[in-house]
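Fold this sequence, please.
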Amino acid sequence: MTSPDLNKQIENILPGILALRHDLHQHPELAYEEHRTAAKVLEYLSDIEGLHLRKEIGRTGLVITVGEELKGPCVALRADMDALPIEECSGVEWTSLISGKMHACGHDGHTSMLAGAVRIVAGMKDRLDGPVKFLFQPAEEGGAGADAMCKDGALENPSVDAVFGLHNNLPDPAMKIGPIAYVPGAAMAGTGNFDIRIVGRGGHAAFPHTTIDPIYVGSSIVDQIQGIVARNIDPLIPAVVSVTKFHAGTAYNIIPETAHICGTIRALDSAVLERLRDLLILRAEEVAKAHGATAEVECELSYPVLVNNPRAEACFIDILKEIGDLDSLVQEKPIMGGEDFAFFCLKVPSFFYFLPSCPVGEESNPVCHHPSFDFNDDLLPTGIRLHVETATRFASLWKA
């Protein structure tokens, strides 16, 4: 069971963690801009001795290690730090002070929970059987900060045996606070983004027969690429093609020369994701060609499929057994959202789980990336506790 001493320690640091979370929320920083965020984490931890610190890992990330010299299995715990380019309308007292930027995904809470765990684990070094790394990661929101950290050696010196991460508010925004949710195996989708530039022949809207209308061609392309999932992918395999932008034209009576379409592809299988990409490029180019236009298509795969490792999952379940939280664990369906924690999963056994955050008594709360979203501070003690219990129990369970 979680010791009364640990609960007391969390209670003691909670006012400072709340202040840190609210400060970070007021000062959101986008991908690879998290200089102040990283500095505030270091300021909060500045009175702790014996921390091994590496700055600017993955450009703006931090790697903090407790027990670097220990020889047992090494665990890494991760929190993302970046915000989103959204104008906040949550109305909370600590609302964003920076126009057009807000913490709409709870990364301010993730960062604060992990900072609290560092403070507590640093005082428990004598209980550790192996090193514990704390990864404060930049640029989760589209910048592949996890990949950048891996390339900068975040998982080396000492070598990490497994990585654990958590996220608030998913997979179901209506799920009440209390459970610990997870998805075995393929948990979150691999993603890609596409840009299609259609080049036709512009002219007067009164004489469409003298033009090659890129809006009409683009509409045909949208229709055809929507059919990829419906007619080219096994219906039992999750896949998504979504068009999210369509820009063209400047006036009522002018058929433009070009049109621009953007969107995303997603799948829970890497081979299916590659097939979506290949078919999208082929259809866009061939549909445009059939109309006498051309389509310049870029479709890049961005985040891999996040696959929870069975051994890391079993280790986490054993931790929950030891602390008496196993009854809180619920299994959910896979999520078609992307998450760059997947890059850690490609390197070492990793496990990602969720802390639902809908307040008791509420039917739902705003979804992540909504301008009214705010992290539920009632999650802070739970997140800190799970990080600390994972840090202190991992090495012995991993060896066993």
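The CA atoms of residues 53 and 320 lie 29 Å apart. The first helix runs from residue 4 to 26.
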